[in-house]
Amino acid sequence: MPRALITGITGQDGLYLAELLLDKGYDVFGLIRGQNNPKAELVARTVPDVRVLAGDLTDLSSLLRALNTSQPDEVYNLGAISFVAYSWEQASLTTDVTAKGVLNILEAIRLYAGSDLSGVRFYQASSSEMFGKVQHVPQSESTLLWPRSPYGVAKTFGHYMTINYRESYGMHASSGILFNHESPRRGPEFVTRKVSLGVAAIKLGLQEKLVMGNLEARRDWGFAGDYVDAMWRMLQQPEGGDYVVATGVTHSIRDLLAAAFSAVDIPEWEKYVEHDDRFLRPAEVDMLIGDATKAKSTLDWAPTVTFGELVQMMVESDLAALTASL
Ligand code: GDP
Q1: Tens digits of per-residue pLDDT, 91-135?
Q2: Is the CB of 213 under 6 A from ligand 1?
Q3: Same domain (yes/no): 88, 166
Q4: Which are the contacts of 116, defined by CB distance < 8 A and separation ≥ 6?
């Protein structure tokens, strides 16, 4: 039975990846940070077969302990401070976790594996936020990185450190440059879930308005369930590599609002949306659109959920949950 260790098990991707690996017959271990982490209960309920280990990406010795206990064939580093807006508020902490945490886990694997480094395959969750002020459209693995937030800078460090460990030590290390990926499990601070929750609440008469920031930004949004499958495929390749994972279609926040309100049969969405500068960021990533040609040809990967289906799925899920709680 292959064994996998996932950092960031409490997040959206951690849960989807754990389900995928358990389905494939893996023995799955998940790293949980902090004393009495409130999300531990979510993990126990959603993926009860995952074996939970205590540890923190900022604590190298805890990572070594987790590796010794889990003896993994594959390590997926999904743990991070992941909310772009928050990364300006706590830039140093974001750097410690999202950047230096990658170095810590790479180094822990190197120390743990000793002379047989080929026995542990590594996945790093890199991000389209590294493209920031985009230097080419669409963005591929060779597009120059120009991050625009402390989060983007931290992810860029992790991306290059992953490449560096591959090149320096011959580690089977892969970096997935994932464009925005969403689901009913997305945190409510992210724009898609904020909108799906808000639209469901407005439809049920529980909320009057949705207060938003920049409506002109464009993102390439896919379904998280599809994207964790790409992660697994990367680690099944004979060599590590870097892969863009994206749908190749871009939409504005305006499009997102129109699609979400239309999913509950409210065509005149502008009436319900207000603006507040507090949702603007010190620097914005205006437009992301990914070129996943390499993932398609090498990994035989393709997205299965369209933007419209994704928005519909999220709004319906929030509508059902809110209705059930009434
Ligand atoms: P990001 O691409 O990782 O920053 O994902 P987000 O879902 O947080 O934001 C996507 C885009 O939505 C960004 O360009 C934000 O500026 C924009 N946006 C506009 N209004 C809001 C809002 O109220 N909340 C969030 N999170 N983003 C917003």
Answers
A1: 999 999 999 999 999 999 999 999 889 899 999 999 999 999 999
A2: yes
A3: yes
A4: none
Report the SS3 class of residue 316.
helix
For ligand 1, whether the C-beta of 129 sits within 6 Å is: yes
Centroid of ligand 1 to alpha carbon of 191 (angstroms): 5
262 is catalytic: no
**Residue 114 included in any domain:** yes
Q: What is the pLDDT of residues 6-40, one digit of tens each?
A: 999 999 999 999 999 999 999 999 999 999 999 99
Ligand 1 centroid distance, CA of 109 (Å): 34
Range of the domain at 257: 187-219+249-284+305-325
Pick the residue whose CA is nearest to atom 8 on ligand 1: 190
Provide the whole-model pTM: 0.98
- What pLDDT does residue 116 have? 85
SS3 31: strand
Whether the Cβ atoms of residue 165 and residue 106 lie closer than 8 Å to each other: yes
Residue 259 shares a structural domain with residue 177: no
Residue 127 known to be catalytic:
yes
> DSSP label at 285?
-
Cβ atoms < 10 Å from Cβ of 317: 17
Is residue 129 flagged as an active site residue?
A: yes
Per-residue pLDDT reduced to its tens digit, 195-219? 999 999 999 999 999 999 999 999 9
Is 122 a member of any domain? yes
Are 158 and 257 found together in one domain? no
Residues 110 and 59 in one domain: yes
The CATH number given to whatever domain includes residue 38 is: 3.40.50.720
Q: Does 290 map to a domain? A: no
Three-state secondary-structure class, residue 196: helix
| Domain match, 203 and 156 both | no
